[in-house]
Design goal:
The protein is an alpha/beta fold. The protein is built from 19 helices and 20 strands. A five-stranded parallel sheet has the order 5-4-3-6-17, sandwiched between helices. The chain has a four-stranded parallel sheet with strand order 10-9-8-15, covered by helices on one side. The radius of gyration is 27 Å and the shape is globular.
């Protein structure tokens, strides 16, 4: 193995004979820390890893690294709320890496190039696992179970896979051809897909438990919540989800001149934008704040900020920190609502209560009120698992208590924020837990702390603007045309080069070049994990220069006594 140093070589009686490493009080070590984009991603992606491969032009390898966690990048790259970018250290320096755009580019490229998922078909003698629900959680679980070598049967009541992605997500956010291509490619890895199979109608949970080694339940949320104002409900009340499903299915929606949508999630914003396309005056009334700088996530609307911004551009009016105090009816038809400012106050039990602020009432004249306040699980066929609860109570790995072999996740899980990336992550973790259950091995969670910005040396990075995705002009946003376009290859490459490589080796040669004692050696073979740099502790005095000048925080100094104690 060839080793390079900056010095030549010397005779035994020269300075090499004096092993100055004995002077050392601290020694440098390589410590791989998780990048904050990785720890923030509910799906389990490691963007730092695939961005490094993109930077080297290894496009297919980057996609394979990405789909090792998330098999739906062309979809999530479009509709995810990308918490990875909120966590990105670069966001505190200039602007966060456009991770979701890189993810989308890789997913789209895989579809164009026909790259096959890196999955070996399961053996005919492999254990069989049933997955109920072909939304993002079910698709993710089925995929990861196949990767682990299991035969998977995926059941869904609908004729095609996709779940709510297919039935309620507008095509201007997720084009139907992208959804169809990615789901079809995924199912082709060897997943048996049974369409038109509803739990409780075509098959029972007891039958699945008897025929399969384990069952994963990912039915989503299909039943609207009850809604009224002091017990009063308009005669022509329609829920937001039902109207979205109608628009996606048939391309039309009942026309109104004006409407107020109650809610602050993605469904509320999606429906508001759809109604604006019909020419309606649209108001969104929410208890929460508009997502903006300085508003904590727990106090902001649950809708994706970029979607809220686009809705505002299109003329949707938002009334934040507001609730409806009275319905104004003429007979049984709505003619307006009385809004009131809402304030959030802590309760004695630590929870937050939302109460009206008296004296702040205002009247809003609209001809339709539409609640978009979320849904609950449709219990049919799962009554004994839900036990009267609107959601599944599960642990991190999806185990349903007191029901061995039954797992659940996705939107149907208690505490779910209803995001696609969260559902994908639920499916992946459940697959790992099912693998452990069938092998009789406990599934262990590994907690890792994200490396903070303060651990990086920012002197080695230039300020560079973030690549912005192209958007259709407001006047062009009609019909099913996709509003947000993708980045092109040079932009994606530029984004990958903006990555700080937090907690991972950049192969910049700083430690090798700057070591005053030539105590950092480098092997000839390049290794992406920094293992091609070797510390020569015989001569390292522990000055710490390599650690201070490491741009990515991959080198840290450790007390010599602590090191000796560990070894």
């Amino acid at each position: 193995m060839a080793i390079y140093t900056r010095g030549g070589f010397a005779l035994p009686e020269t300075s090499l004979a004096s092993k100055t490493g004995t002077w050392r009080l601290q020694r440098p070590i390589h410590r791989h820390s998780s990048a904050p984009c990785h720890t923030a991603c509910p799906a389990g992606e490691d963007p730092q890893a695939y961005l490094a491969q993109v930077a080297e032009g290894r496009w297919r390898e980057a996609w394979e690294t990405l789909v090792a966690a998330n098999p739906l990048p062309a979809i999530t790259g479009r509709v995810c709320d990308h918490p990875c970018e909120s966590g990105c250290n670069r966001g505190q320096y200039d602007e966060a890496i456009a991770i979701h755009n890189v993810e989308r580019f890789l997913g789209d490229q895989a579809i164009r190039e026909g790259w096959a998922y890196p999955v070996t078909p399961p053996s005919v003698n492999a254990h069989r696992v049933a997955v109920v629900g072909a939304g993002p959680a079910g698709l993710s679980a089925a995929y990861h179970l196949c990767r682990l070598g299991y035969q998977v049967t995926l059941l869904d009541m609908l004729p095609e896979a996709g779940g709510t992605l297919r039935t309620a997500l507008p095509p201007y956010r997720l084009p139907r051809e992208v959804l169809a291509q990615e789901t079809q490619r995924l199912l082709a890895i060897g997943i048996e897909f049974l369409a038109h199979h509803a739990l409780g109608r075509d098959v029972s949970l007891d039958e699945l438990c008897a025929d399969y080694g384990a069952v994963f339940l990912a039915p989503g949320r299909q039943q609207g919540r009850e809604w009224s104002v002091d017990g009063r409900v308009p005669a022509d009340l329609h829920t937001g989800l039902r109207l979205l499903q109608e628009w996606v299915a048939v391309g039309t929606i009942p026309k109104v001149k004006s409407a107020a949508i109650v809610g602050g999630g993605n469904s509320a914003v999606d429906l508001a934008r759809v109604l604006r396309k019909t020419g309606a005056e649209v108001h969104v009334i929410t208890h929460d704040a508009l997502p903006k700088l300085g508003v904590p996530p727990e106090g902001a609307m649950k809708a994706i900020p970029r979607e809220v911004k686009q809705a505002q551009e299109e003329g949707v009016m938002f009334h934040e920190h507001r609730g409806i105090q009275r319905l104004l009816l003429r007979g049984e038809r709505v003619v307006g609502v009385e809004m009131v400012h809402m304030k959030k106050l802590p309760r004695p039990d630590g929870s937050i209560g939302i109460v009206p602020f008296e004296g702040t009432e205002t009247v809003l004249h609209v001809e339709q009120i539409i609640p978009a306040i979320g849904q609950v699980v449709l219990a049919a066929g799962m009554e004994r698992i839900l036990e009267g609860s609107p959601f599944f109570a599960v642990d991190l790995w999806g185990h349903v208590a007191n029901h061995p072999g039954v797992f659940a996740g996705g939107d149907a899980r208690k505490g779910s924020r209803g995001t696609v990336s969260g559902a994908v992550g639920d499916g992946r973790r459940a697959a790992l837990a099912i693998d452990g259950y069938l092998k009789g091995v406990a599934t262990v969670e590994h907690h890792t702390e994200a490396i903070p910005l303060e651990s990086l040396n920012l002197n080695y990075f230039e300020h560079e603007p973030r690549a912005e995705e192209p958007l259709l002009a407001v006047e062009q946003r009609s019909g099913d045309a996709e509003v947000a376009g993708g980045l092109v290859e040079p932009q994606v490459m530029a984004e990958s080069l903006r990555c700080f490589s937090c907690g991972m080796c950049l192969a910049c040669d700083n430690c090798w070049t700057l070591c005053p004692d030539q105590s950092v050696l480098k092997i000839k073979e390049l290794a992406s994990d920094g293992s091609h740099y070797v510390f020569d502790y015989d001569y390292c005095k522990g000055c710490g220069l390599c650690a201070r000048e490491c741009p990515s925080g991959y080198i840290v100094m450790e007390d010599e006594l602590l090191f000796a104690g560990r070894y």
